[in-house]
Amino acid sequence: MRSIGFGLAAGAKGRAAARGKAAAALLLLAAAAGCAPAAPSPDTDAPASNSASSSAPDPSAASASATASDPGSSGTAAGAVPTPTPGLGEECAAVRCFSMMVAGDLLVHPQLWTQAGADAAASGKVPLDFTPLLEGKRAYLDSADLGICHMETPVAEADGPYTGYPLFNVPPQILTAARDVGYDACTTASNHTVDAGTAGLNRTLGVLDSLGLPHTGSYASEADAAKPFILQTPAAKVSVVEATYGLNGMTADFDWQVDLLDPAVMIAKAKAARAAGADVVVGAVHAGDEYASVPNAQQVEVAHALADSGEFDFIYGHHSHSVLPIENYNGTWIAYGLGNSVTELSPWYDVNNEGLILRAQFGQDDDGAWSVTDLAWAPSVIVRDPYRWCSVAADLPQGACATPEHQAAVRARTIGVVESMGAADAGAHEWLVSTDPVR
């Protein structure tokens, strides 16, 4: 149940109404983007495509739904009592709260669309069904008011042809599955965003629009690129500002098509979002050294600059294909890298097969200011035969989908890295979704 519209506070959480959950949706849509396979060599440069532009469908064509009730922002009238809005997830002491789940790269390789073909034959959702691959995420997305995916690559036409590394053009059905398990919006700026040229970029944004998934990071028009990206939750208006470190040596056809890392530009976007009504601004940084366990100098410099500006309430990142530390920097939480959300299995880099999902809970204080009131994370791993996303959190909400030895190794690596910059001492903790209160 979603609704998209330019200039409208629209939408609901894309879950079934029977779940009784208010939805998140787009207020002012800016517009939508997606890395290398697990191989010994990093991403390689490739020539830019000069494919003709294919404009994205009119977002107003998305199916409509009721706007989330009581969408009020922090701007409560003088003397008025804020409407209690507890949000989903941990118990929140503040009167108004909401939670946001973020994850790493949706990086689809040929092995995954082969699996989706086999799953489609079993489910009848031909030709490709990626929902079983992502199904384990549903419980986590159901325990967050807002779920943001990162689409790493362009998508092809529904019937192909598809291509993998180094120039990706993947089945669009992956986005259908992302919506169906509960994602509400996606970021789209990555080093692979222009792998299929302007046509692929616009096609990806068109698919997201047709599915009712708001998006930011890459754009179908200059006008879209200039609009603040704001999502409506029951408690607050939330903006996500995302950018990538580069495009694998390629160049977008227009300088406004893909947001590139520049702290000054990101800070200006955050200020514009606040001027347009955003209560909370989140930064998303696509950067890092592949398969690393520490953030590189660029990541730290950019994240700290965003935090120091006072315009960002939370910052997270992706790209390295590995889980990176979480830091509380002068009161601002920074999750440097969430690893892969989905990918093929690497025989060379165990970390490539692992990921992190993270839920940030935001609460509003008595003065109307919003801040992160709880930060929870859960480790994950991709398994095969069949390929599945698998949580290895201590409560094993899916049950055991890897061997005890494999689960223990993933947990040990993930916890060691996540907590290596003081996250546990600052209050970040493992997300045990099975213990979340039911609302």
UniProtKB/TrEMBL annotation:
Span of the signal peptide: 1-38
Domain of life: Bacteria
Residue ranges, compositional bias (Low complexity): 39-80
Keyword match Cytoplasm: no
Keywords: Signal
One protein family per Pfam: PGA_cap
Region described as Disordered: 39-84
Domain Capsule synthesis protein CapA residues, every copy: 99-345
Keyword Glycoprotein in record: no
Family recorded in the similarity comment: Belongs to the CapA family.
Protein name as annotated: CapA family protein
